[in-house]
Amino acid sequence: MSVQYLENSEHLPAKVFEFLKLLVLNAQQTVSKEQAIELVWERNVEVGKRGVGNAIWQLRKTWNELGLDPDDYFKTIPKVGYQLLLPVIELPVTAAVYQQDKRSTSQIVFALIGIIILLGFIFFWRPNSEVQQAVNSEPQRITHYEGVEEQAAISPDGKRMAFLWQRDRKPAQIYIKDLVDQNAPLRQVSMSEYSEESPTWSPDNQSLAYLQIKDNDECSIRIRDLISNQDREIDTGCAKLGFRRNLSWSPDGKKLVYIKSTGDQKAVFSTDLDSNKVKQVSIPDEEIQDVLIEWSADSEQLLYIREREMSAELVMFDFSTDETSTLPYARDMVIGLAWQHKKNELYATALKEGSFVIEKLNLDDFSTTEFHRDNTISSLTLNKAGTKLYYSNHIGQEFITVRDITTGAIHSQVISSSRDLFGQQLKATNEILYVSNRNGNWELWSKKNGQNLMLTDDVGLVSLPSVSPVDSQFIVLIKPKGNVDYQLYLGDRRQNQLQSMPEFEGKNIKYPSFSSDGENIVFSVMEGSNWIIQSYNLDDKSFTQLHSANARYTVQTEKGLYFSKENHSGLFHFNFVTNEETLLIPELSKGDWGSFFVHGNEIFYVARTKEKDLLQKRNLDGMTETLFELPAKSIRTGRAIAKGADGQVIVSMLGINDADIFELELNVNP
């Protein structure tokens, strides 16, 4: 059973479809939870209570996947039930669906419901044999649960899939799904209270290796025997990098390879499972992260990605010679790899023109073709035969809220069915600048007086903006189409200008910001092999070195420099008078590297517990105060807060957070 909008179609589970029918039959009226439990869940109160909440969540998620804003269609009546907001117009089955009145698209969607329901029942009551015989070359959804399903790993016999499942923003757990018997229940493998991720199968199908991450980011590599259910630790000090798979078992069963932190770097390590000997495989330079690992079929070579800020290249390591070679494949970012050995092809999830797509790289001649596009593709894996590719497809709806800085109450918000991030208040013109993909590509946008305006139009890949505290200027790093490097652009909203700054050409900089007096641009720049903090004066166009720290994001005030460091937790301070660097706020996490701002003698920043996200304030005397609390993991990571107008703070929020796993059939014939 499915619902359709234009050319997009989404499957709905049977009970969710029944719940949608109930809403349709009572359009613009409130359907109580009790009604839904009685009519859809046949008076099974305990199952129905959970089912109603899950059903409305599934409907809102499905509307989002269809490119529609669920808030326009579904309304929650607190403690009572739910309401379908728009009227329903029944059309005959023979009606021409696509002869639409463009003035009333939303009504047309629900005019289709009568047809959709009929088609849904036709599909539902077909004999099972007919459904099973259907062949579709399009991606097939393998999981469709509430939350994030990621990091699929297929057993060597092709019968089972291990994956990460994260629900209700709680620690991720590992489950196994039977790929042969679709009615078989999921098996939960994770047994601890901690997050457990990156499953990888042993060649004999009997064990899973995985990462266990504790609350303090302490990471260990473990192996669980699936028959005896015994678990043992292999090594510690491993690194977690989002949903990227950074653990792999060699095809011959002799080694595990994984990523560990070595200072500011991330390096590839291996453990010999017979001798327990640990070996550092890669030796990255400063500021380098080696991530993502794929074995050759004979267990002699490794492919991995070597990345610096917005720069990624493919590297091969040969265990027989201990030699490393860089291969001719480079992208802004790569977040998934899968090696098809039979045809010697590499599938990669790469950032291309602001979107993640799956590319296919021929490892014989290094020719590249675009293989598949979807909304937001993440990790990749193949079955052992190389006939099926699995990927995770994410749905994100980050949005920006303007909140009271002491109570957290929402004054206004920037929200769409897309992703709106990293808002900055430009006080001189009373507008918010932010990054959004609401037009399909990541662009720089402005919101003023309730109106949204796109400031860049297919110029290139846009980074995070920073606004002047004293006038109408802003800066943003953009990688123009066809260029290898990012360029710094200076804009002025009053003059409606955006121009590149030739003074910065050839400089490798990151995350620039304005000083508190608006006279300087402050940034980190690569000088030789080291990153240092510099400033650029907008009047005399001079550059000045401020500090030798390896900073990721820096704010300059008359009190000195406040900055976060690459791969380090904490907010640091550099005093211009004493030339001393101190760790000021240790609880600022690595993921929240830019989630702070300075106002007068106070620092505002994001702190997190297992249960809550906190906006905190610290004064120069070290006194800390919690201003307001939000549910855990509801504030986005990165640079998620900024100073708003008087008494306000701008917060980037994580709304819908969901991912399903899909399967693609591959043509592996010569």
What does this structure look like?
The chain is mainly beta and 670 residues long. It folds into 3 domains: 127 residues, Winged helix-like DNA-binding domain superfamily/Winged helix DNA-binding domain (Arc Repressor Mutant, subunit A); 242 residues, TolB, C-terminal domain (Neuraminidase, 6 Propeller); 262 residues, Neuraminidase (6 Propeller), CATH 2.120.10.30. It contains 6 helices and 52 strands. The strands form 13 sheets. Strands 6, 27, 28, 29, 51 and 52 form a 6-stranded antiparallel beta sheet that branches. α2 crosses α3. The chain is globular. The relative contact order is 0.08. About 7% of the residues have low confidence.
How is the topology of this model organized?
Elements: E1 2-5, E2 8-11, H1 14-25, E3 30-32, H2 33-39, H3 45-65, E4 74-77, E5 81-84, H4 105-111, H5 113-124, H6 128-133, E6 140-141, E7 148-154, E8 160-166, E9 173-178, E10 187-188, E11 195-201, E12 207-213, E13 219-225, E14 231-236, E15 247-249, E16 255-262, E17 265-272, E18 278-280, E19 289-295, E20 301-308, E21 311-318, E22 323-331, E23 334-340, E24 345-352, E25 355-362, E26 368-373, E27 377-382, E28 388-404, E29 410-414, E30 420-426, E31 431-436, E32 443-448, E33 451-454, E34 460-462, E35 466-467, E36 473-480, E37 487-492, E38 497-500, E39 509-514, E40 520-527, E41 530-537, E42 543-547, E43 551-557, E44 560-565, E45 571-575, E46 580-585, E47 596-599, E48 602-608, E49 612-619, E50 624-631, E51 641-643, E52 648-665
Antiparallel strand pairs: 1-2, 3-5, 4-5, 6-52, 7-8, 8-9, 9-10, 11-12, 12-13, 13-14, 15-16, 16-17, 17-18, 19-20, 20-21, 21-22, 23-24, 24-25, 25-26, 27-28, 28-29, 28-52, 30-31, 31-32, 32-33, 34-36, 35-36, 36-37, 37-38, 39-40, 40-41, 41-42, 43-44, 44-45, 45-46, 47-48, 48-49, 49-50, 51-52
Helix pairs in contact: 1-3, 2-3
